[in-house]
Amino acid sequence: MGRRGLFKLLGTGAMLSGAVALTGYSYASQVEPRWLSLEQVRIAIPRLPEALEGLRIVQLSDIHLYPYTDLNHVREAVALANAQRPDLVALTGDFVLDHVDAIDDLAPVLAGLTARLGLYAVLGNHEMWLGAAPVIEGLARQSIPTLINRGLTLDVGGVLLYIAGLDDGWSGRPDLAKALAARPEGAVTVLMVHEPDLADATARDGRVHLQLSGHSHGGQVRLPGMGALVLPFLARKYDQGLYRLPGGPERRGLWLYTNRGIGVNGPPLRFRCRPEVTVLTLTRS
């Protein structure tokens, strides 16, 4: 091949590489961040009471309303969640990103979630950094309680289900003993914690069946063979999906689910890491 042919070939290769890079960036910035995934997860709990068999928990996390996440995206997630007919909805923190008053727009949309056993929330690190009080108050106006180192006992067909939440692990003061203080002996227990890596302490305690977390966004960008390029503090060990940790009730193990979130942070990109609405179904088998 002559020099002219070689330069032509190199130029064509450069143009193709540029086109591929531009297409990939367009996909990661415009398509995947809005392409909701519905994740269906079964949580096997030995000797689960009959009244809790098939109980459906929908989890939404890391909405980060404004500037990258808009209300239409949240409305789509709410509609998808409601279509699953959840018994309970868990909102695992980071409702806002840069502006705490975004909760005034977000909370009424979240109030459109329907679940016979109610909606429950915990705080994330962004609420702590921007000011937790307006978020707690905004959710409370829509009858969504924020569980900060406390829990509630729910009667489900005569069987007790305990739902608890911790303060943010990064900038708050999480107190697991306080959160579980009102737990009835033997009650199936679900713990909401924004940061997933706190699960090691939860497993050592031994009283929690299922921990629901977010925070990681799954890394937002995941490359084949490498996984997430960047992960935040307290989400570097359990960065997405379902885990089984040693410990938990009767030493059979703690289930942990880390949700990839609805919104984005930092560069507003997602690649091989779609935003998700999660349905977790409790079962004996």
Quick take:
By secondary structure, this protein is of the alpha/beta class. Helix content is 27%, strand content 23%.
Order of helices and strands: HEEHEHEHHEEHEHEEEEEE
Mean pLDDT: 92
Low-confidence stretches: 12-20
The CATH topology name reads Purple Acid Phosphatase, chain A, domain 2
For the sheet with most strands, the description reads: 6 strands, mixed
Number of helices: 7
Termini separation (Å)?
66 Å
CATH architecture: 4-Layer Sandwich
Determine the CATH superfamily. Metallo-dependent phosphatases
**Coarse structural class:** alpha/beta
Total strand segments: 13
Strand content: 15-25%
Cα shape: globular
Radius of gyration: 21 Å
Q: Order the strands across the largest sheet as they lie in space.
A: 5-6-7-8-12-11
Q: Percent range for helical residues?
A: 25-40%
For the record, the CATH class is Alpha Beta
Structural domains: how many = 1
Strand and helix layout:
Blueprint: H1 3-31, E1 37-44, E2 56-60, H2 71-83, E3 88-91, H3 103-110, E4 119-121, H4 125-130, H5 132-140, E5 150-156, E6 159-165, H6 176-179, E7 188-192, H7 199-205, E8 210-213, E9 222-223, E10 227-228, E11 241-245, E12 254-258, E13 276-283
Parallel strand pairs: 1-13, 2-3, 3-4, 6-7, 7-8, 8-12
Antiparallel strand pairs: 2-13, 5-6, 9-10, 11-12
Helix pairs in contact: 2-3, 3-5
Commentary on this structure:
With 285 residues, the protein is of the alpha/beta class. It has a single domain, classed as Metallo-dependent phosphatases (Purple Acid Phosphatase, chain A, domain 2, 4-Layer Sandwich). It is built from seven helices and 13 strands. β5 and β6 form a beta hairpin. α2 packs parallel to α3 and α3 packs parallel to α5. The relative contact order is 0.19. About 3% of the residues have low confidence.
